[in-house]
Write a structure and sequence with these properties.
41% of the residues lie in helices and 20% in strands. It contains five helices and four strands, in the order βαβααβαβα.
């Protein structure tokens, strides 16, 4: 997992404040479409995570369709355990 320079957590701000991967960036899924350029500016590859992998899967599909080098990391606790 250490080859991922950027981890983006797409959970809500409230979920994120309850615990997250150290060094991750919080961009809730509902804000993703309005923050495309910000996401594209991060170091790639990008690893998306959320609570279970569903929302991060949506973000991953969206950004892969835009040509961004990214992957669905699944739930943030699994990502955290692999770091």
């Amino acid at each position: 997992m250490s080859n991922f320079p950027t981890i983006i957590d797409v959970r809500t701000h409230a979920e994120y404040s309850g615990g997250h991967v150290a060094g991750s960036v919080n961009i809730p899924l509902q804000e993703i479409a309005s923050r495309v350029e910000e996401v594209k500016a991060f170091a790639q590859p990008i690893l998306f995570c959320c609570a279970s992998g569903m929302r991060s899967g949506q973000a991953t599909q969206y950004f892969q369709s835009l040509g961004v080098d990214c992957e669905n990391g699944g739930g943030w606790m699994e990502v955290n355990a692999r770091m």
